[in-house]
Write a structure and sequence with these properties.
six-stranded mixed beta sheet; 13 helices; about 50% helix
Length: about 280
Amino acid sequence: MALRSEPTARQLRLAMELRRLRDAAGLTARQAAALLGVTAPVISQIESGLAGVSEQRLRRLASHYACTDEEFIDALAAMATDRTRGWWEEYRGLLPTPFLDLAELEHHSTHRCDVEFLFIPGLLQTPEYARAAFSSRIPELPDEERELRVRHRMQRKVILTGPDPTPYEAVVHEAALRIRVGDRGGARAQLFRVLELSDADHITVRVIPFDLDGFGGAWSPMMLAGGRVPRLDTAVRDAPHGTGFIDSEAQLAVFRTLFRRVEAVSLDPSRSRDFIHRVAKEL
């Protein structure tokens, strides 16, 4: 089988989890290879995401690594055998790879959570809002790539509006509601779209108002995507140099704690709807 030239984030996650299991077992790549009856380079290729691994080999490795978490092993097996080529593949070679990796991550997520302080979360954006947001990028994007990014962002909404929607929760600061990314009409239309989407049972939107006392959590947006088991959750952070996918258990624990904190201080969904509606009327 030919080696992959550019593993996806999902393939790299599987590779990393297998490396972590081997390290926890105290085995070298050469020792793991001997137990599997292959050469050490095969293990290295699997653990770098350059080569896939069959379900049979994966379960043998898990056994050799003394992993007894059956749910976790089943989840890894599902990752190893998945051959999905989703809608995002049409953008390969047209958009940066992290755009495709994010769409694939969302496709497989069991739930999604967003925290935003300055922008409406991408999954809730209208095309006009997304276009205005991408237009403010420095350096300026060519028109063709900007429109590709807008179309890609709109297609990502399939996890919310498709036949098998993903449970979704967003915590949005009042600043994001009031900042006019585009013009006044677009800003109002965006807020009414958020209200429309939040009517769905699987979508929850909460607001953090400006007048909240003692809130020091407004420091950075974040996204959490639920894995098949909690060990396979992923946090996503956007930065000027690109999108980062975070999967270490220690860092995931921090993000889960941060999300619980902002969720706890935000308005409940009903009061949040009233708040958004009032802001929309004030624009």
